[in-house]
Amino acid sequence: MSDDEKFSADAKFSSPACLMHEVERLAPPKSHAWDDVKAWRKQQREALIKARPEDPNERRLRSAPILEQLDEELRVMRAARSAAAGSAAAGAAAAVTRTGPVVLGIYWPFRSEIDVRDVAHRHIEAGGIVALPVVAQKNAPVEFWRWRPEVPMTRGLFNIPIPGEREIVTPDVLIAPLVGFDRAGFRLGYGGGYYDRTLAASHPRPRTLAIAFAEAELETIYPQPHDIPMSRIITDRFAFDAPHSAATPPSR
Questions:
Q1: pLDDT digits over 73-105, tens only?
Q2: How far is residue 120's CA from residue 189's CA, in Å, rounded to a whole number?
Q3: Is the CB of residue 233 less than 8 Å from the CB of residue 212?
Q4: For the domain bounded by 28-241, which CATH number is listed?
Q5: Angle at CA 24, nearest 5°, toward 19 and 30?
Q6: What ranges do the domains of the chain cover?
Q7: Contact status, residue 94 vs residue 43, Cβ threshold 8 Å
């Protein structure tokens, strides 16, 4: 089986059915007004977080196909970057948009999130750069500080570890955690809006790979004008490219 066949846009992965968790699905919000949608999101967010698998062994088992695809995405991106660098060296620099190591933005896992640190280690070993999001100013886009396993860490917002040294880099690809998602590629996060603000301010935007367990899928998150769709959603049972990742969600 080729890489393209294995990781197609509608790829499906195996995951034991007995591990799937029941998630409470709420009735739709009273209206599409932001206040009603915001209240609905808060309640649905709490239900989804509560339903996350708490057992570390279960999370590790179910995370395996997700991490495998992340590794493959990064391998392909590094290969393309290396080929582009070779073209530039051969005198075709005009056709090259970016060269140098692929910069990967990750997150430090908390609240039973999928742990992507092994992916980050492998990316560094392959010559890539890894960064963690840092809230340098509340209600503003985050900064991405370079992370190396040997660099001392400190504590940031919500007591989440961040690099102890401020070395700002710009991600080419960003792994984003999910609380919930829909088939339009919109992401339900923790409600702070940091990822949306950061992506809105990014030019060009990084490729966004949002990951979650399959039961986090919702019929819709009732997208608002400030919501930005992900490039790709990856779960333990399926993966797909967002159909409107370059589009602006409709006004409600």
A1: 999 999 999 888 776 555 544 444 567 899 999
A2: 22
A3: yes
A4: 3.40.50.10420
A5: 155
A6: 28-241
A7: no
